[in-house]
Amino acid sequence: MKKKLSVLAALCALFVLLTASQEAVNCCKTSLKLCINLIIPSLFPFFVLSGLLNNLGFPEILGRSIGKSAGRLFNVSGAGFSAFFIGICGGYPLGASYIATMEEQGKISSKEAERLLGFCNNTGPAFIMGAIGTGVFHSVKVGILLYIIHIISALICGLLLSGKEEFASCELSPSPAMSFSPALSSAVKSSVLNILNVCGFVLTFGVFTGLMESSGFLPALCNFLSGKTGIDYACIRAFLLGLFELGGGVGAMEGFELNAQNLALAAFMVGFGGLSVHFQTLSLIADREIKSARHFAGRLLSAVLAAVFAYIAGIYL
For 232, left (φ over 0), alpha (ψ -120 to 50), or beta? Predict the structure, then answer.
């Protein structure tokens, strides 16, 4: 039944593309500009840096130094907790990729992988400080504030989702760190693939939301929700776009003034990541015995916590 519904949905999408091909082309061009002007400049340098640190052995060193105590706190192994540093430094979807790799190598169990996905797959500093702090609010300090809130919310989320099951201690197996030259080369190559993956989902969801907007469905929904809630139309639109794709939602916030409401909106979108991120994560764990329910719950909980903290902080800005 699910397969038939999926095929039907794909056929409907094909019909929409055929009947609104020019609109689809325009939407794709807009999303491509977003990738060129915002996504790639803000993400790619940090992708390279996080990949370089990973290749040089930084996560393993950090995981061994504080992994045991932090692991007991979050009820995960020392090896598993190192995924938090990858996720919070590299951003979506590096945390999920690292977790899937550890599960595949037998360093963590599938159950622990599910738990780690609940709080270790996060937005990186590049996007938060570059795209939101500088790009939207024109303030690096605001970007740093949002990043700190994002980290705190993820950690609280990890505590709340720690569960009762206990995991056997599992340390990262010794692996020789690369020298700088091959580490940098590998980081650049993997970063190119990662940025292409991110941009591919940005383009796909950009076309989808663009067609929703050109058809009049999204504006009608925004007007309806704005009238019912009293929230500004532009905020509603950015929120709905952010539910589908984080970059599109943040792009829709350009020109927003810095206040508590807008700061909370940005924090929520960063914490949730958008359906695009969830689909990226699903693609990484598709062949593993890892369920995605905890990842979705973790992202939603983290988003709510971040929005509350950001709203309170915005009152005093």
Answer: beta
